[in-house]
Amino acid sequence: METGHAVRAADARDAALPPESVELVVTSPPYPMIEMWDDTFRAQSADADAALAEGDGPAAFAAMHEVLEPVWEHVARALVPGGIACVNVGDATRSVGGEFGLYPNHVAVARRLRAAGLRQLPGVLWRKPVNRATKFMGSGMLPPNAYPTLEHEHVLVFRKGGTRRLPPGDDARYESAYFWEERNRWFSDLWELAGESQAMDGGRERSGAFPVELPLRLVRMFSLLGDTVWDPFWGTGTTSLAAMLAGRGSVGHEIDDRLLEAFADRLEGLADRSRRRGRERLARHAEWADGRDDLGYAARHYDFDVMTRQERRIRPRRVTDIEEGHPGSPLASPAAGYRCEHAPVDF
Q1: pLDDT for 59-88, tens place per residue?
Q2: Angle, nearest 10°, between helix axes 46-54 and 57-78?
Q3: Which residues, at least 6 apart from 188, have a Cβ–Cβ distance to it below 8 Å?
Q4: Which residues on adjacent β-strands are paired with residue 156?
Q5: I want to staple 334 with a disulfide (CB 3.0 to 4.6 A). Which of 6, 63, 224, 259 is the partner?
Q6: What is the pTM of this model?
Q7: CA angle at residue 71 from 66 to 76, to 5 degrees?
Q8: Are 243 and 23 in contact, with CB atoms under 8 Å apart?
Q9: Sign of dihedral through CA atoms 72, 75, 77, 81?
Q10: Under a CB-based contact definition with an 8 Å cutoff, are residues 250 and 17 in contact?
Q11: Cross-strand pairs, 210
Q12: What pLDDT digit, counting tens, does each position of 262-295 carry?
């Protein structure tokens, strides 16, 4: 099995993906009203620049979300009927013009995705525990002027139209299945995952990178083997990396072309890491299943039992080879392209 992966050094607002060309979107945009993104928004919006200069927080917040709005319209067009969009976004707390307040980015993004014609589904709170002694804001131990600490971000989930229509007994669907205990963990509305360091070499000083486990989980939950995943705010390429690990194709847009140069370093040893991750996933299930007397079905490809009929044909893929080259993706002439060969995980 082969997958293609393309990245274009371009503004996602100018994305020209064909309509109904991707099955899943997994992305995390720049967060309005987070200071590390101020220069990005100011460069793209005179209104945002003026509002920040005047200390008008609500106006700056609105102007920044207007910058992102065309991307959400592209997302709605690019998804296949029944396709899913997952958007990781954090709210912001900030003092502007001498007044401290919360800027609810997840509300503003959700409103625009709905306006683009997508249907909102239950989402996830991604909790990132902060253990710094200085994490609390406000007046220390004295009421009433302290504030709760933001230790979570939102994973918004949207669907285009109704559920995807797939042939009965479709091999890709059944081989892409997740285990019963994974379903119970992944489809909880609260995840605790450690964030990744935001220090970077060679690119911008900080990046809004999420840990690979977050997009990897979403890719496995909402797409099939061989599907294409789009990340319009590609950043350090974590969504593409997750797609490679999961046997899906990927497309990315990234406005900062310096970040594309560093992606090749993340692919070093990918085949070995992919095989190890796949084996660890199967080993977790085998350990969970060992000694249980309520598992009624034998897996077809592995020597363990599973809880349901839907799990019998599970067959995760691993990367066996990766090479640079045109990926044959929905993006013509990508700035960077890769082809991955995949094989079933042995266990």
Answers
A1: 999 999 999 999 999 999 999 999 999 999
A2: 150
A3: 124
A4: 87
A5: 6
A6: 0.93
A7: 120
A8: no
A9: negative
A10: no
A11: none
A12: 888 899 999 999 999 999 999 999 999 999 999 9
